[in-house]
Design brief:
Family: Belongs to the type-B carboxylesterase/lipase family.
Largest sheet: 11 strands, mixed
Distance between the termini: 54 Å
Structural class: alpha/beta
Shape: globular
Number of helices: 15
Protein name: Carboxylic ester hydrolase
InterPro entries: AB_hydrolase_fold (IPR029058), CarbesteraseB (IPR002018), Carboxylesterase_B_AS (IPR019826), Carboxylesterase_B_CS (IPR019819), Type-B_Carboxylest/Lipase (IPR050309)
Oligomer: single chain
EC number: 3.1.1.-
Strand order of the largest sheet: 3-4-6-8-7-9-10-13-14-15-16
Radius of gyration: 22 Å
GO molecular function, one term: hydrolase activity
């Protein structure tokens, strides 16, 4: 059988052999189309294919509005029938099976796909891993919680996107050996919303055994809400889509659903700073408890975790005028007041105590720092403190920015580590990253970062050649790897933040 045909339990898939010798299989269906009566229902694993399937083109991306910050590629198509995955395998795949890295894309739970040019898996695969990128349902089709509206005649399920990811991981467990991967060494990794799904999986009992390691880049760990908040989002969606009867929703054109979901996406954080419209829901079943609480208490799945954030996460949201992070002082004050009102059982640090953590920061930049830390850094730190008692944890902060990103006052903002992880510089349209130079230094950083990520996925410590060893996090040293032109390990890098924000995780219910 030709090398580019994988003979798997799910079927025979004809892929493409790249000039490097690596192989890629695109657009493999892992679940049946979630359309018609299956809209807002649990994913159903795809039936095994009888004939050889040509897996040479990406499957459709989930329906969404295009976003200039997210390049989906020149040939992207959108359809509800979007539950596909892609596999890259290196030229010299080990017959015994290579470590597997399964990517969950970001995009605020509303944008993106596993086929973005940024996520081309060839460079990572060349380092000795099988790479899988997945699509899942996003926006209202993936995260709207209609389960409370369910009837015998018109049933609805919840946490669909999270279940899609679980379904994809189950496909990987059953099939990846046929593509050169070791199903016992699966690392699930993601960024932003994708990282949020990764950290959520650590609190999902059903996920146990589906992956052996996890990487979370800029995870909004605490942006997971209870059923009451999810119900308020559902009510707003029904109002905006113009359908008071949920039973009629399966007949609504997908474009109307996307447009109504986009309006909800903008409206929720405007009404309630510090919250987002869509995300996993604490349903008492699949997701019994809030992931941030589970991780902080050291009760997550006993899976080694590599996790961190970027130095300037929030500058991207300021540049895009996005409502997702409360950057302005009045929005921050509203957020803290709402937190105090909704969580009277949680000690909210006094404002002055928080501000002391930003001593020396220019006044106009304090809001950016607070937004960064309440949205990303502090939820990460609270999770790390607890999960390190459960399994080994490696904590990082990505500080590198090219001269152009410094000139634009963007710095190491949200998602700027991605081309370093994937080795895909220049894949994004209208990329200004190297307009003022800095490519050689960036490529050296990318080389080290890829070594660290792949070593971790292989079950080893995340170290790199000619770079400091990265010790696991512990409660005494609190070691953090600062990733920059020259990596360095810093003990208790976030001591001032911990003093300012306190030990108790802050999150909306």
């Amino acid at each position: 059988m030709p090398d580019d045909i994988a003979n798997a339990p799910a079927g025979r898939f004809r892929g493409e052999t790249l000039p490097s010798g690596a192989r890629v299989w695109r657009g493999i269906r892992y679940a049946e189309p979630p359309t018609g009566d299956a809209r807002w229902r649990d994913p159903r694993p795809a039936a095994p294919a009888d004939d050889v399937i040509d897996a040479v083109r990406f499957g459709a991306a989930a329906p969404q509005n295009t976003n200039p910050a997210i390049d989906l590629g020149p040939d992207a198509v959108f359809a509800e029938d979007c539950l596909f995955l892609n596999v890259w395998s290196p030229a010299d795949a080990d017959p015994a099976g290579l470590p597997v890295m399964v990517w969950v894309h970001g995009g605020a739970y509303t944008f993106g796909s596993g086929s973005q040019p940024l996520y081309d898996g060839e460079a990572l695969a060349a380092r000795g891993t099988v790479v899988v990128t997945i699509n899942y349902r996003i926006g209202a089709l993936g995260f709207l919680d209609l389960s409370a509206k369910s009837t015998d005649a018109h049933p609805f399920d919840g946490n669909l996107a999270l279940k899609d990811v679980l379904c994809a991981l189950e496909w990987v467990r059953e099939n990846i050996a046929s593509f050169g991967g070791d199903p016992e060494r699966v690392t699930v990794f993601g960024e932003s919303a994708g990282a949020g799904l990764v950290t959520t999986l650590l609190a999902v009992p059903r996920a146990e055994g589906l992956f052996s390691r996890a990487i979370a880049e800029s995870s909004p760990v605490s942006s997971v809400y209870d059923a009451a908040r999810a119900a308020s989002v559902t009510d707003l969606f029904l109002e905006l889509v113009g359908e008071s009867d949920p039973a009629a929703l399966r007949d609504v054109a997908v474009d109307r659903i996307v447009q109504a979901g986009t309006r909800v996406f903008a409206e929720i954080p405007a009404r309630h700073p510090g919250t987002i419209a869509f995300g996993p829901v604490i349903d008492g079943d699949l997701l019994p408890e809030a992931p941030d609480a589970v991780l902080a208490a050291g009760r997550g799945l006993p899976v080694p975790l590599l996790i961190g954030t970027n130095h300037d996460e929030s500058s991207l949201f300021r540049m895009m005028k996005s409502p997702l992070l409360p950057i302005h002082e009045d929005d921050i004050d509203r957020m803290m007041a709402d937190l105090a009102a909704e969580r009277p059982d949680v000690p909210i640090p006094p404002k002055q105590q928080i501000l002391e953590a930003y001593e020396g920061v220019r006044h106009r930049e304090i809001g950016l720092g607070i937004a960064r830390d309440i949205g990303f850094r502090m939820p990460t730190l609270w999770a790390v403190e607890g999960h390190a008692r459960r399994a080994p944890v490696w904590l990082y902060r990505f500080d590198h920015a090219t001269p152009m990103l410094h000139a634009l006052r963007i710095g190491a903002t949200h998602a700027t580590e991605l081309p370093y992880v994937w080795g895909t510089f220049g894949r994004r349209a209208h990329d200004l990253t190297f307009r003022l130079g800095g490519r050689r230094a960036a490529e050296a950083i990318s080389d080290r970062l890829q070594q660290r990520w792949v070593s971790f996925a292989a079950g080893e410590e995340p170290n790199a050649d000619d770079a400091p060893a990265w010790p696991a996090f512990d409660a005494e040293e609190r070691a953090t790897l600062v990733i920059d032109t020259h990596d360095r390990v810093v003990p208790d890098l976030d001591g001032a933040l911990r003093a300012g924000w306190g030990k108790t995780p802050l999150a909306f219910p």
